[in-house]
Write a structure and sequence with these properties.
Transmembrane segments: 55-75, 87-108, 186-205, 243-264, 276-294, 306-324, 330-348, 369-392, 398-419
Region (Disordered): 427-446
Number of strands: 0
Number of helices: 21
Shape: globular
Membrane topology: Multi-pass membrane protein
Subcellular location: Cell membrane
Domain Major facilitator superfamily (MFS) profile: 14-424
Largest sheet: none
């Protein structure tokens, strides 16, 4: 099946929409992570002792990751049947609404145990939204991109998520500096209320984006698949397993963003909230430049070697970063935080949108990416909770957490070593095992 030419300027437009939409979407998602580490233990779990309150708060961060596989099944199905654009718009609205509602929630002092219950419900909605966001944006940019620059254009989705994290961190820096009474009463709510503007801007941008030529060609010729999940598991089950294993590398992000922040600001280390938020902000700023550079390199030398640099390198660098926190040296923590997250982790983070997406054919690409990544991300989300337990009763056993994070980087390395190299494969041949597979496969159309 030959894919029609993409109109001039459409790849750039799709990449821009993916960047901005993902930045706005993940602004919502990651302000929750900052609040879960710094504020929610006192606002929603204040009747517990401090260690238990922190553990419960970090567990609510992981709840969204548990909801992601369910959302992936639902949104992946409709994304492969109805198109990439509809899912991109839907996920943005759902994330904006659920995040705004978090800012409106009553505290435990006001309504008792109902408060954390409502918090978890809103967090589940965030998780369902995030499940379809990256898969739809990645599919949109990959299918619009020139064949020789798919790595570069799809990387805009992930540099967008880093932009969202940067924005979330910058918003939380002045909030965290508020007097304790103001912070815990109304200050923490402001970043969540700002999601209204986030949703409106993203909606306007994404409504104007065209559907991809690859999807339109698929729908016009063979027709869309009636049950994408059936076809996915029949023809691409091994690739789904590879994506699940590869997605575990996101544990580096969640440990860096949430657990390390909580550890550094704990009594055992004593760094200030604002100073540690600046570590995350500067690391994300560097990542904004590093991600497209790594992705461009993958267009030249292949996806696998770049992904391996990121996965294996992150396993080593997390030891150094967490050790630097334990020393209490802020300059050392800042330097190693930037290198770990901004540079090394960006190699895997920048290349996985093209690496995973190129494993699947057009008819099941969104389902394959959504289901595979979100199962892996679910483990990554709860890695924060496991880390809090592994860190011991005082929460300061950083070496155990570093070893745990390194162990979670092993499956991504195995997944990359076992995967096919797809950087030079024509877009219309992606996901095909043999030249005759397209003619032999059974397509169940609507």
């Amino acid at each position: 099946m030959s894919v029609p030419d993409t109109p001039a300027g459409q790849p750039r437009k799709a990449a821009t929409a993916a960047w901005i939409g993902s930045a706005l979407e993940y602004y919502d998602f990651f302000i929750y992570g900052s609040a879960a580490a710094l504020i929610f233990p006192e606002v929603f779990f204040d009747e517990s002792d401090p260690a238990t309150a922190t553990l419960l708060s970090l567990a609510t961060f992981g709840v969204a990751y548990a909801a992601r596989p369910v959302g992936a099944l639902f949104l992946g199905h409709f994304g492969d049947r109805l198109g990439r654009k509809k899912i991109m718009v839907f996920t943005l609205i759902l994330m904006g609404v659920s995040t705004f509602l978090i800012g409106c929630l009553p505290t435990r002092d006001q309504v008792g145990t109902l408060a954390p219950v409502l918090l978890v419900l809103c967090r589940v909605l965030q998780g369902i939204s995030a499940a379809g966001e990256q898969a739809s944006a990645n599919s949109m940019t990959l299918e619009h991109a020139p064949p020789n620059r798919r790595g570069f254009f799809t990387s805009f989705t992930l540099s967008g998520t880093q932009g969202g994290q940067l924005l979330a961190t910058l918003v939380f820096i002045p909030v965290a500096a508020l007097p304790e009474e103001q912070l815990l009463s109304w200050g923490w709510r402001v970043p969540f209320w700002m999601s209204v503007a986030v949703a409106v801007v993203g909606f306007v941008i994404r409504r104007k984006l065209d559907e991809t030529p690859a999807f339109e060609q698929q729908a016009a010729t063979e027709g869309v698949v009636k049950l994408p999940l059936v076809v996915l598991l029949r023809e691409h089950w091994a690739d789904v397993l590879r994506v699940i294993g590869g997605a575990l590398v996101a544990s580096v992000s969640t440990i860096f963003t949430v657990w390390a922040l909580s550890y550094a600001t704990s009594d055992s280390v004593g760094m200030s909230r604002s100073s540690m938020l600046w570590v995350g902000a500067l690391a994300n700023l560097v990542a904004l430049g590093a991600i497209p550079l790594w992705a461009t390199l993958s267009d030249r030398i292949g996806r696998r070697p770049v992904f391996l640099i990121g996965a294996a390198g992150s396993a080593v660098m997390m030891f150094l970063y967490l050790w630097s926190i334990s020393t209490g040296s802020y300059p050392l923590t800042l330097l190693l935080g930037i290198v770990t997250f901004g540079v090394v982790y960006s190699a895997a983070n920048g290349v996985w949108p093209s690496f995973y997406g190129e494993m699947f054919s057009t008819r099941v690409r969104l389902s394959g990416m959504a289901i595979g990544t979100q199962i892996g991300f679910a483990v990554a989300g709860f890695a924060v909770t496991f880390a809090a337990q592994i860190a011991g009763p005082n929460g300061d056993d950083w070496s155990a957490v570093a070893l745990f994070t390194a162990a979670l980087c092993v499956p991504p390395v195995v997944a990359a070593l076992s995967a096919r190299e797809t950087a030079k494969v024509p877009t219309e041949q992606l996901g095909e095992r043999t030249a005759g597979q397209a003619a032999q496969r059974e397509t169940v159309t609507a």
